[in-house]
Fold:
Amino acid sequence: MIKAIVCLSLIFMYFFVLFPHEAGAQIAPTNSATISGSVSNVAGKPVANAKISLTGPRNASAQTDAQGLFVFVGLPFGTYQIATTAENLGTAMRTISVQGDTNVAIQYEPASTNGLKTIAHVSSTSSATFNVTSASLTQVSPVQNAFEGKTSWRTILEQIPGVAQAGLGHGQYATSAIPDSPLSPMQISINGALPYETAVLLDDMPLIGTPSLIATFTAGSGTNLGLYPLNGFGSADVVRGPGANSPSIVDSIGGSFVLHAPGAVSSNHYVLSLSTDPYGGVVANAQAAIHWKKLSAVVTYGVNDSPGPLATTSYPALLNFTPLTVNGEFFSCTDPNAFGNCATQTVDPRYRFTPLGFQVSLFACCTDQSAAWSQHSGSVALNYALSPSVNAELFYAGAASVAPVAYNYYTDTFTPPTGYTGSIPAGQSLVNYAGFYLTPFQARYASSLLEEKIVAQVGRGTLRLAALQNNVFIGDTDYSPSSANLQLFGGGVLCTTLPCNSSNPSYMPTVFNGGTYSVDFGSCVAAFWDSLTSKNRDLSLNFVDPLGEKLHAGISFVRSYYDTPSQDYSDYAGCISLTDLPSAVSETSNELRLFVGGSPSMKTSLDLSAYFVNADYHVQNPSDATGNTYLDERYTYAAPRLGFVWRPTAAIAIRAAAGGGFAEAPLSYINGNNGTPSVNSPSSPTYYSVSLENVNLQPETSFAFDVGTDIRLHHNTVLSFDIYRSNLYGQFYNSTAPAGTYTGAYGPLPLYTTTYRNLGVSRYEGVLLDLRRAVPHGLYWSLSGGLTRGYVVSVPAGFYNAPGKVCNFSTDVGCKNENIVPTINFNGEFSVSIPYAQGLGTIGYRWNPDKYVDLVGTYYGNNNTYFRPAFAEFDGHIGYPLSKTVSLLVTFRNITGVYDGSTSVYTPSDFTGAPSISGAPYGLDGEMYGPRTVLVNTTIHL
Structure:
């Protein structure tokens, strides 16, 4: 029976690899786990010398120490029966599913009628987990955070020092302007590494997607967690550094963020959570966990409906813009002396609006504007025991979000011209939410994950076969009429003929005092539809077999396929040329891992893995101008990783890990476009630019080490400390160089070429410290912090020389790449900020698990992802049980009101490159943390 199932599974997986567009599926977790825990009596006091026995994929036994603690290291995943026997207390038993490092708190209950006891609690997310793996490991529970009313991955990631959201793009994405919006991009950065250098995995299978609709040029460069449901995943591991048991070394320079499906349940229970959001919306989550004979099912569903930061109703947006005509006469703003602060911009008749310029003395009113959003998300996790030795698992997680998205958020101060008598007072700040569009974009984001997995016990070993189907859809629509009747406020110039300047006899300075005018924007871009669909298919095979009682060996294979987002642009007027990557462009990686490990003695564990990787890019042939032929570029890499843990006592674990890593170039870095050069600004062009393909771009490789320790200072107090360094060889950078003069539609102008290339040596390094006391009742506290920096160590020869020239730094002649300087912290280079300092502090008092009060402070050092000077933010929590089944959680968000704002103030389309705050290369200001507010959450357990 087992052999037949395994053979059928292999046939299915083989078909999946050959036809990646046809099959679905996903997943398989890390390869070995640590089961640790404590034993206490009915009064909650530690029980020493209790015998702990494990029966399952590997049998093991241990004894608790004087503090009631025990640990098992290097156990293969699977289902175990854990039994505890203590003198005068009897035996407690329970079956547990181990899909990752698990912490078990065993507390004896009063004797039951059958004389057996039950284990009171099993958890893999204990806040005082004692880590005895060779990697720096932090475990979190996404679903628990969702049921506490959180709507974003942001809070989870920000409260782990050394981990940051690196995907805000320095203001390039308007969707990030509203804190905690479900459309805000969330890309993770671990130990300073860039988003594409940080793997996001569903167990050991990479999730590859597109960060944002606007970021088509960064296809495949990191995974946007904001697309995936927070309430869909039972647990997640932040695996930092070069752990020998890392599920993958591909795109894992800093580490991996490993997501796990909800595990099997042994009894029925139901949970309902109702919360408010920071903008007055409603957040609801429900979960049903059902155990019926051989079937275990966990179903989660959530809804997030919010009016957003504007109001509960539509908002009369004030638009500043450059129309083509007003009441049939040409509108212009070419004369800087015309009226007050009127910008010196020339209207290009092919565009409705001047792309980069706007005038603070001309506004239009009114179009209905809303920032409301709606998100539906959830997951289904099924576990079915086909036989005592074979288990089938199915996991689906998905989310769908819709919201109107304006591409500009900024505040203007109204400066009226002479003769203005309208209703807008001078000096009033007008918040512009609509940017250059009369109607907001209707943005839609959706994701779909499907995993199919079979776990079988083959002899004493465990076999896992899994497949992943990961689809992401991002789209928006815009319909803006070519003409409209609008109220106009402010000043400008009207002319019956062109050019509209002061030498034209029809030149007529005009004051608009709120009257209604017929405004024409030209014939272009009446409406369009943008969509991106990325497809990611993964396959995984894993087999672990024990070698005696102390060692184990295994093999794993992961195949990942990703094609570039298919993009559809419908420009009804045909006036804007939009390019996209052809759908035939793709990348495939294969990773084979051989590993052996175990516990040579009671005090040591050793793990050794050898990884073999190859990557294949299927891209357009750069020598074929038609773009109809393709070529394949293949790269190979092999690296070992070694992990060692020494436990001189039961309360001390000293760990060390070292090894190599491999980062693939994002697909767009390889492909480029090799198309016709485009002008920087159609209204006031100064140069042409073109992105070139570089099929010779080599992958990044790395060597890293991490040394750390966990020390249990007391039964409930744990100290963790880590120091790490990663050296990168051939890190990617975008090189811009002058390439002479190009004559195009706008005449002869300088031409600049951009292409991704490899640097010399770069480095990430830092230290991490965590000290926490977690207790079931009484005073609890935590203090954690991290110091991280990243810098370029060396650059290739001739790095600063422009083509055919020698750079002279004193005269700035013949130079390129001057924004990259060795030994200097990145400070916003490479589209990421590296937090030099990050910290978290918590203090609270707990009467029981649901009754507590605490204060949490988070510190963001310089180079934080908000592009702000260093600051601290504080939240307060009050938990109170209303009954045995109903609990209340009140959150006081952003108590001090630091950067208290509903939207960030910036213009994503302003690519001037002028630094703003804290080194942000784009934007008019830093990001907002979020509004100061009180949030209420009610949770019902049935």
Q: What stands out?
A: The radius of gyration is 30 Å. The CA atoms of residues 835 and 864 lie 5 Å apart. The domain at 138-305+375-405+441-478+526-941 is CATH 2.40.170.20 (Maltoporin; Chain A).
